């Protein structure tokens, strides 16, 4: 997706060979026009997948997930990282390790929002080691629902997340596949 590649080149900041900062348009400040384009593209890529719900993790996946849900006409559920006074029933939950934050947290979804008839599209901002995706897949399976696919805004292809998801047979679509962040330069797999 050329508009996303351009944004990454123009506004992304390479912090190390492993970390790409995109807070100017994706995960702190949000570019709504770009998010709409991202949502349109995910909707196109998964149009024939029978998606009934979209799941993401708060907070960075919410904007692309909502735009995709709007285009597909399906609800969006975000897995919460923090316990809420209103989220008290027997939650569907999984533990996820954040590579960027170097922390582990439990994410949870109310079982009222997912059931065995759902075909769920996972949307996330980044795919690195695949831990967030695997946590969301675990939650979807706990509900007895099926995974329609995974839509990733930015994939760090030099890390092992995609290989693991491919090996498990999941349909993964990444809009920007980063091959390398070496020497402060973003190189894409075209």
Would you summarize the structure shown here?
The chain has 190 residues and is of the alpha/beta class. Helices cover 28% and strands 31% of the residues.
SSE map:
Layout lengths: L1 H10 L1 E2 L5 E2 L10 H14 L7 E5 L4 H11 L3 E4 L12 E7 L4 E7 L9 E9 L3 H12 L3 E11 L4 H7 L4 E9 L6 E2 L2
Helix pairs in contact: 2-3
Describe the structure.
With 190 residues, this protein is of the alpha/beta class. The chain has one domain (38-178): Rossmann fold, CATH 3.40.50. Helices cover 28% and strands 31% of the residues. It is built from five helices and ten strands. The chain has helices at residues 2-11, 32-45, 62-72, 131-142, 161-167, and strands at residues 13-14, 20-21, 53-57, 76-79, 92-98, 103-109, 119-127, 146-156, 172-180, 187-188. It has a six-stranded mixed beta sheet, sandwiched between helices. Strands 1-2 form a two-stranded antiparallel sheet. Strand 9 and strand 10 form a beta hairpin. Helix 2 (32-45) crosses helix 3. It is globular.
């Amino acid at each position: 997706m050329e508009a996303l590649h351009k944004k990454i080149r123009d506004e992304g900041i390479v912090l190390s060979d492993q970390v790409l900062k995109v807070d100017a348009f994706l995960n702190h400040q949000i570019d709504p026009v770009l998010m709409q384009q991202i949502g349109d593209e995910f909707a196109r890529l998964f149009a024939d997948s029978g998606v009934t719900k979209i799941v993401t993790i708060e907070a960075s996946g919410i904007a692309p997930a909502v735009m995709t849900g709007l285009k597909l006409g399906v609800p969006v559920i975000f897995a919460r990282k923090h316990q809420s006074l209103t989220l008290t029933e027997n939650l569907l939950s999984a533990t996820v390790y954040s590579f960027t934050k170097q922390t582990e947290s439990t994410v949870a979804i109310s079982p009222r929002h997912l059931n065995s008839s759902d075909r769920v599209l996972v949307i996330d901002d980044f795919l690195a080691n695949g831990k967030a995706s695997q946590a969301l897949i675990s939650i979807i399976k706990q509900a007895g629902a099926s995974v329609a696919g995974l839509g990733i805004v930015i994939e760090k292809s030099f890390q092992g997340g995609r290989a693991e998801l491919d090996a498990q047979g999941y349909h993964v679509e990444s809009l920007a596949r980063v091959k390398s962040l070496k020497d402060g330069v973003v190189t894409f797999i075209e």
